[in-house]
Amino acid sequence: MALRVAGVAFGMAAFTGTHLLLSHPPVRQDLIAKLGDQKFKGLYSMIALGTLVPTAFFYARFGRGVGPRLYNTTSLIQRLGGFGFKALGAITFSQAVTQPNPIVINANREPGAKITEKDVEAKGIYRISRHATFMSFALLGIGNVLTRGHLSDIIFWGTFPIYWVVGSTMQDERLKLTYPASYFENTSLLPFHAVIKGKQSLKEALAEMSPKSAIIALLAPVFFL
Ligand SMILES: *[C@@H]1O[C@H](CO)[C@@H](O)[C@H](O)[C@H]1NC(C)=O
Ligand SMILES: *[C@@H]1O[C@H](CO)[C@@H](O)[C@H](O)[C@H]1NC(C)=O
């Protein structure tokens, strides 16, 4: 039991720890200088997948609902909240993958190429949070934290919302060196913050979203029942 909880904790620590280490500017710059930009990106993805995928398998097979139960999860509020957050996560994911993300597009540029305001214009879901893909996992994580209650579940699912904030903040710090400052003024990490500040229009965001992908994302789980 304790071993299984430790396994989940170890896996998530390996995933977040290696990710943070490779994003740490001195380490990152040193590796890019040694390996080149492309090889560094390959290594980065390989380590991310190589730690997260086995951890997710371990959790699914051995780690669900183990360790002490920290709270009960039977209340209607928790169940409705859990469903709501998971559904929002699925919708957010469907929009994040169907709308081009300025950060991903610009990651494939020549190093040192000038990034203009036009290159980093946020559309659709990215008007709501500039880190929408991370956010979709964070929402899924919050939904699962609400509806499960064992230590292993909280460690596994709780890492996603924390990592959304920490990892996105670190990525922003790095992008601020090359991106136009107005990108960060016009968008936000926290959902709807830029909309509330009047920098983004919710109407335009909704008009640019894909209702079809949202419906598919909500219906897809039915086929796995
Ligand atoms: C959960 O509910 C059960 C039954 O009502 C109760 O005995 C138990 O102490 C509760 N557990 C927690 C962690 O609140
Ligand atoms: C930010 O908003 C201003 C004013 O609406 C606009 O002129 C500028 O192009 C925007 N910049 C980006 C990167 O979206």
UniProtKB/TrEMBL annotation:
The keyword Transmembrane helix applies. It holds the Pfam family NnrU. The keyword Transmembrane applies. It is found in: Membrane. InterPro entries: NnrU_dom. It is a multi-pass membrane protein. The chain crosses the membrane at residues 42-60. Keywords: Membrane, Transmembrane, Transmembrane helix. Residues 10-178 form the NnrU domain. This is NnrU domain-containing protein.
